[in-house]
C-alpha cells in the first residue's frame, strides 16, 4: 500500500515538473517579446528590439495569438511585425519587407492602432527602396563587366577614342554616384518626405540600369568586331607569307616587273613611255620608262639589300615598330631610298593605328616619308596585294599627282 502511494506521488511530481518546464519555456518567449515590445513602443534601441523579437520567434513563431504581457494587459503576439519595424529603423528595408510579408501571410490578426499606422507609413517606403537597391546592384555588376572589357587586347586600342565607350562610361559613372547620393539623402529625410523623393530616385535607378545594359552590349559587340578583323588580318598575312615562301620572293612593295630578253617591263608602256610599278624582288625592276628616257634608278639585276628585305619581313608580320626602327637605324643605298621611304611610311602609318591613334607624330612621320618616296621616284606606288587600302589612299593623298617627267638620257 505504501509502495503504491509512493509510486503515485513520484508520477505526480514528474508531471508537475513537466508542466513547470513547459510553462517556463512559454514564459521565456513572452518575456523576450514583452521586453522588445516595450522598447519598440518607446521608439528606442532598435538593435535590442530586433534581438528580443528574434529570441521570441525561436520559441514561438505562430503570430497572432493573444499573449498576456502583464497581469492586466493582453496583446496580439506580433514578433514578425516588430522585427520588421526594427529592421526598417536600422536602415534595412529588405529585412523589414521580408518580415512584414511573413507577418501578413499568417493573417491571424489585422493590424490596428499604432501598428497599422506604422505599417501604412513605412511599408510604401520599403517598396521603393528595395527595387532601387536591386537596380543599383545590377548597374554595379555591369560596370564591373565593362571595366574588364576596357582592358581587352583588341577593344583597349580604341577604348578612349570612341564616344560610345570611355566617354559614355564616364558619364554613366557620374550619374550613378549622383543617384546613390540621392538615395542616401532621401533616406535621411523626414519620413513624410521620403516616398516622394524615392519615387524620383527609382526612375533614375531604372534608367541607369538600362544605360549600363546598353553600354555593355555595345562594348561586347565592338570587341567581337575588332577581334574578327584582327583574326582576318592575321589569316591574310599568314597566307601572304606562305605565298612569299613558295615563290622565294622578297618583295618590298609594288606590281612586279620582270626582265625579258634584256628588256624591262614595269607595269607596261604607253605612248613610247610607261608608268612604273613599285618595289620588286630579285631579278626585277622597280619601274618603267617615261617620255623616252629612263626614270628607274634600280637596275634590273640589282636585288634589294638584305637589311631592307629583313625589315620588310618584320612589316608583313605586323611588327611595325621593329620595321620602323630598323629603317631608321640602317643606311639604305641611294637606288633603294624610294622603296625604303615607302616602307617607312607604311610602318609609321600602321603603328599609328595599332597603338590606338594616340601618337599623332607617327602620322606626320608617315606623311613625310610618303613625300620623300615621291621625290625619289614619282612612279613608285604601293601594291594593293601587300598594303591595306586605307594606307594606299593615304599615300595617294600625300604623294601628289603622278605626272610623266623627263629625265636625263
Task: Describe this entry's structure for a reader.
The protein is mostly helical. It folds into three domains: 17-110, Alpha Horseshoe (Serine Threonine Protein Phosphatase 5, Tetratricopeptide repeat); 124-244, no CATH class; 258-399, no CATH class. The protein has helices spanning 2-42, 46-59, 79-89, 93-106, 113-150, 166-187, 191-247, 306-316, 320-329, 337-354, 360-376, 389-399, and strands at 66-70, 73-76, 258-260, 263-265, 289-290, 293-294. It has a two-stranded antiparallel ribbon with strand order 1-2. A two-stranded antiparallel sheet has the order 3-4. A hairpin with a 2-residue loop joins strand 1 (66-70) and strand 2 (73-76). The model is unreliable at 16-25, 253-297 and 404-409 (pLDDT under 50).
Summarize the structure.
This protein is mainly α and 409 residues long. The protein contains twelve helices and six strands. It folds into three domains: 17-110, Serine Threonine Protein Phosphatase 5, Tetratricopeptide repeat (Alpha Horseshoe); 124-244, no CATH class; 258-399, no CATH class.
Please give the structural blueprint:
Blueprint: H1 2-42, H2 46-59, E1 66-70, E2 73-76, H3 79-89, H4 93-106, H5 113-150, H6 166-187, H7 191-247, E3 258-260, E4 263-265, E5 289-290, E6 293-294, H8 306-316, H9 320-329, H10 337-354, H11 360-376, H12 389-399
Antiparallel strand pairs: 1-2, 3-4, 5-6
Count of helical stretches: 12
Number of domains: 3
Helix proportion: 55-70%
Structure classification: mainly alpha
Order of helices and strands: HHEEHHHHHEEEEHHHHH
Q: Tell me the span between the first and last alpha carbons.
A: 152 Å
Mean pLDDT: 78
Strand composition percent: under 5%
Shape: rod-shaped
Number of strands: 6
Q: How are strands sequenced across the largest beta sheet?
A: 1-2
Q: Report the sheet with the most strands, covering strand number, pairing sense and barrel closure.
A: 2 strands, antiparallel
Q: Low-confidence parts lasting 5 or more residues at pLDDT below 50?
A: 16-25, 253-297, 404-409
Tell me the radius of gyration: 42 Å
